[in-house]
Every structure is written in C-alpha cells, then in structure tokens.
Amino acid sequence: MTAPVTPAAVAGPGGAVLAGEVVVPVRVGSRRDVVRSLLHDRTAVLGLAIVTVLVLGAVFAPLLAHHDPNHVDVLRKFLPPSRSFPLGTDNLGRDVFARILFGARVSIGTAILAGLAIGAIGTAVGLVAGYMGGVVDGLIGRVLDVLLSFPSFLLAMAVLGLVGPGLKNLVIATIAVSWAQYGRIVRGTVLVERERDYVEAARAAGASTMRVMRRHVLPNIVAPVIVLITLDMGIVLLQISGLSFLGLGVKPPTAEWGAMLSEGRNYLDQAPQMMTFPGAAIFLLVLGLNLLGDGLRDALDPRTRLRLAQGRRGGRGRGRGTPSATGPAAPPAPSAGAAPPG
Amino acid sequence: MRRFVLRRVLLMIPTLFGISLLTFGLANATPGDPAFQAAQRSLGRTPTPKEVAFERKELHLDRPLPIQYVDWVGRALRGDLGVSFATRTPVRQELFRRIPFTLELALPAMALALLVAVPAGMISALRRNRPVDQIVRLVSLAGACMPSFWLALLLIILFSVRLSLLPVAGRGGLDHLVLPVVTLSTVPMSILARYTRSTMLEALGSDYVVTARAKGSAPWRIVTRHVLRNSLVPLITTAGAQLGFLLAGATVIETIFVWPGVGKLLVDAIAARDYPMIEGFVLYAGVAFVILNLVVDVVYAAIDPRIVVGPGGQQ
After folding, report:
1. Which residue from A186, A193, B168, B275 has the fewest beta carbons nearer than 10 Å?
2. Structure confidence at residue A165 (pLDDT)
3. What is the ipTM score, two decimals?
4. Which residues are paired to A23 by β-bridges?
5. Which residues, in sequence order, are CB contacts of B181 under 8 Å at separation 6+?
6. Number of C-alpha atoms within 13 angstroms, CB side, residue A107?
7. What percent of chain B has pLDDT over 70?
8. Which residue in B244, B152, B151, B149 sits closest to A6, CA to CA?
9. What is the tens place of the pLDDT at every residue in A27-70?
10. pLDDT of B93-136, one tens digit each?
11. Do A282 and B147 touch (CB under 8 A)?
C-alpha cells in the first residue's frame, strides 16, 4: 500500500507545491470563516464524523465494550456476530468488538503521537533550513536527500530489524524516518515567506532571528502544516499498522488493528470477522482523515472559498479537481520519499 | 542536456555518501556485541572473554570507527556485503537472486496501474462532475485509503477461499500472479488516476487551451494536441515515485502471498535477526532508489526541455 496522498502531492493549501519546493502560503481568514466553510463541505463533515466516532470509541472503550478485550475463553471461539458479541469472537474466544475499541487506543494513539512528532520535527527543521539558508540549509538539504531517497516504510522496517521490534521502537522508527517530507515542504514555504514585508519589518524593529522565526514566520505557515498533518496522519496510521501487521509492533495479547489483522490471516475461513473489522477500521479512519484534510485545505484556502461563494456550475469545488487547489504546476519531488507500503 | 545529466549525477554523490553513513550507523546500532555474537556463532557455545577478544581482532572491530567505515565501504564497493547469518550465503548473491521475483510482481503491477489510471483520470477530467467522474473519484479515493494488506486478505477470501478460482499463495503459473499484482497495483492506480485528473483539469483551464478554443480547433484536437501532451509529462515523475512506493509495498504483499522476492527476504531477515542481510538490503535499496530517481529526472528532462533550461532561460 502506498500513501493515499503524499505530502508533496497534496501541496499546501495555498496552491502548488513545486518539486517539493514552493508552497504559496495561505492567508487564513477569521477562524469562524474557516469553521463555517468546513461545515458547508459535506464530504469534510463526513470525514470529521468518521474520525470523531472512532476517536470517541477509543476514548470510551471501557464503557462501550461488554467484554474484557483480553479475556480468553476457548469454548466460545469463532462465534459469528451476535447480540453479546457484536462483531463475533476470535480464535481464543475474545470479543472482536472490544478488541477493536481497545485496539483503537493503541492504533489511533500512536498515529496521533507519531503524526504530531513528525509534523513538529519536520516543521522545525524546514523552518530553520528555509529561514537561515546558507550552510545550514545545505547540510539539512543533504540529510533530507538521504532520507527521501528511501520509501520511509522500508527504512522504518530496516531500522526495526536492527534495533529490535516493539511498539515503542516502531513509533520512534516511524518518526525518525518520516519527517523529511515535511522538512522539504515547509522549507519551500518558508523561502517564500522570508521575502515578505512583515519579516523585514520585524527585523527592522530589532527582532532576533529566533524571534522572527518563532513569532512571525511560524504563525504564517501553520495553516498548511495543519492540513499536511491531517492528511499525513492517515499515511502514518497505514505505516504503523503495516509494520505491526508484519509483527514488528505490539506483543500479544495487546490489541492493535494491524496485529489483529495479522492474527486473522490464519483463520480466513473460520472467522473472517477477525480480519474484516480491524481492516475496515483502518480503512475508515484513513478515509475520514483524508476527507477532513481535503476539506480543511479548501476551507483554509481563500481562493477555493471564493469559488464556493460564486457557486459555479454545481461544482461544489472540492479542491481535489479544481486546478488551483491541487494543480501540480510542476511535478512533485521525484524522490521515492515518505510513504507506507503499497 | 549533457550538463544537466552530469550535474544530476554529481548531486548523487553526497546522497550516496549519506546512505552509506546511514547504513553503517544502523549496523553499529544493533544491540549486543558483534564480536561476542560472531564468536558464539562460530563456536556454537558461549565464548570466553579471550575468544571474544580474538574474534574482535579477527573482524577488525578493535579499530577506530572511521577506519572500520572506510574498510566497510571498500568492501561494499567491491560487492562484498558479508555473509548472511541465516542462509550462510553471501548477502549480495542472495539479494540478486531475489530481485527478479519482485520485479515479476512490480512491473506488471505498475503497467496495470498506468493502463487503468491514465484513461480513467482523463475521462474523469473531461466529464467533470458527471456520474463517470463521481465514480472515478470515489473509487480512486477508496483505493488510495485502502490498507493493501487488508485488500489482499479480502481478495484471498473472495477468490481463493470462497470461489476457489485463484491460488491462495505461492509462485507458479500466471494465475498465481493475479491477486498479488492486482493488490499491489491498487494504490498506485488510485493515486495516478487522481493525479491524471488534476493535471488534465489544470491543462484544460490553461491559456493555451483557451487560445486553441478561440481559434476554433476541434475539441478532440485540443485534447490530443495540447492537453494530453502537457498533462502526461508530469505523470512520469509521479509514476517513478509510485514505482518506489510499490517496491516498498511489495514487502507486505510478498509476505502475504509467500512470494520469494526481496520484500519477503527482508521480512524473513528481520525475523531471523540476520543483520548483514538487513544492512545489505538498506544499502542496495538506497542505491537503487537514487538511481531510479536519476533515471526519472533524466527522462523527464529529455521530454520536457523546460526542466533543463529553467524558467530563467539558463542553467
């Protein structure tokens, strides 16, 4: 499996990402405008709803599950879905519904943790490289080249193979190999931002480099970064559950969606529910994050909003197809960069 | 053009150097004392400290790290990546033996992806907001969000377990190729379809199309002469990147379908803690991807002169 949408391909909300270089930054309207425009986008609302339901399921897992997710009872193994076991039971008689809910805590939790860490590291590095330029930029650029020359899934796998499997190592490996794509995109955005008048004004007012980066440039690139993180969270989830599926993540009996799928592999005939439901959960969450991310991108992009207001030809211009939103004015970075397995 | 290629090749050097450093660093990050482990493996019992010291000297692990690095690079350049712990065969030999199997899946998968995605994306763009477009968008979105390992298992349940039409796993006749190739192609197919659609829409809205329309060109002529030529070029780069993702995805697909390619080799090596094999894989994969990117860039530049010349008219 590959990235649903690679960060380079999604571009910034403001427009085209050119070869991972320039993202035209976004002027964000008032927060209320953004929310309103988001809520008018039916597919974005659907995405938000999917994500919310799954997150609430994870949070309230102990209240929603009728059974202990790790309670083994071989007498009731391979039960089909019923009132007591809404999604049936697995090979050890454990409640699949309870395991999905508790598994959501691990799967969603790690995806959020890794997604935010990747976003933070990538943004910080890209900000420094883009703003400082020169030798610093050159050095960072070479590091990015190396990391982006591998598909991150392969590199994460190899790292795990060398340092040893386990959930903690898995999350660390995923973070360590995946931030480069952000770094490149943010760097491109900052290169544009750096030339703007407000930066010069801040400098003239005597603000230090650090202060200009943190207080002036950063707030101006936050919108595209939020969109990127939302879209990328799905990729991270696919990557983590893929690695977990290969047995590099949680140890049994901990419930986690990828690991559950892997267990279900051996019982395709007797108990397909062991495999169908965890897979559906992953699929739905990735789908929800993508819909939400696309909606956010459109909501944060004033140009799309303008188009919405003009209401052209029934096209509720969901960015995706509208040239200015996705328009690959130039190819995305040719590197085989960050993405989970295909 | 020659200067562009030369420049591009020179730019590879720091990247390759970085990849070698990364691999060497990872190799040194493995837990445990390699001298102890090597002694243990050759003796078949827990070695004495003296035996460990002997092994350390034997393997040159007593030398400073930079010297070890230079040594290691020298050997890697000669194609010597060490011997697999698990199979006792040279790492390079084993890797090269497995590569054709992976290509057997990856190339048809890429071909299938392009064959479906490009026409689908084009039709979708030309029939924007019509039912065809809606269907293509929905299917390609679903395909792009699909965990491939889930899709693989769903297809196995349907076509192998329930309908008994296709083999569950293993390598054999053409029927063994169907499920892994289809699974492997789904994600690149979806992404390429979405990409084709958006480049087409972009081209359709551009000035030269407006001009062509104004001048009264036939619609089909506009599409074939102007839109297609301009929107298919960037696809090459995307397809190249997708080929990289596809090779990464092969690890999971090969594992599920018990296919003897490099992906399964890596997964097995990780399970067996076969460090030389993992390191060899990282090094070779890194070099292979750098070369793949180079080829994609050069092909792109050969087709689109704007890349070589650059917007400023120089370079």
Report:
1. B168
2. 87
3. 0.84
4. A17
5. B105, B108, B109, B112
6. 36
7. 97
8. B244
9. 555 677 778 878 888 888 999 999 999 999 889 888 887 788 88
10. 888 899 999 999 999 999 999 999 999 998 998 888 899 999 99
11. yes
Nearby residues of A71 by Cβ (< 8 Å), 6 or more positions away = A93, A94, A95
pLDDT at A3 over 60: no
Residue A326: closest CA among A68, A60, A23: A23
What dihedral do alpha carbons A118, B152, B98, B164 form, nearest 10°? 170
In the three-class reduction of DSSP (H, G, I as helix; E, B as strand; rest coil), residue B131 is classed as: helix
Q: How far apart are CA B302 and CA B315, in angstroms?
A: 15
Between B84 and A282, name the one with better pLDDT.
A282
Q: Pick from A250, A18, A104, A37: which is nearest to B237 by CA?
A: A18
Q: For residue A319, what are the contacts with CB-CB under 8 A and spacing of at least 6?
A: A294, A297, A298, A301, A304, A325, A326
pTM, entire model: 0.82
Q: Are B154 and B259 in contact (CB under 8 A)?
A: no
Pairwise CB contact (< 8 Å): A2 & B187: yes
Q: Tell which A residues from 196 to 255 touch B, by Cβ distance under 8 Å.
A: 234, 238, 241-242, 245-248
| B248 with A279: Cβ contact below 8 A | no
Q: What is the distance in angstroms between the Cα of A206 and the nearest Cα belonging to chain B? A: 35
Q: Please list every residue in chain B whose beta carbon sits closer than 8 Å to the beta carbon of residue A157.
A: 251, 266-267, 270
Closest to B41 measured CA to CA, from B95, B92, B82, B86: B86
The token pair at B86 is: 């698990």
Contacts of B128 in chain A (CB under 8 A): 315, 321
| CA separation for the pair B209, B199 (Å, rounded) | 13
Q: pLDDT at residue B262 above 50?
A: yes
The rounded Cα A44 to chain-centroid distance in angstroms is: 15
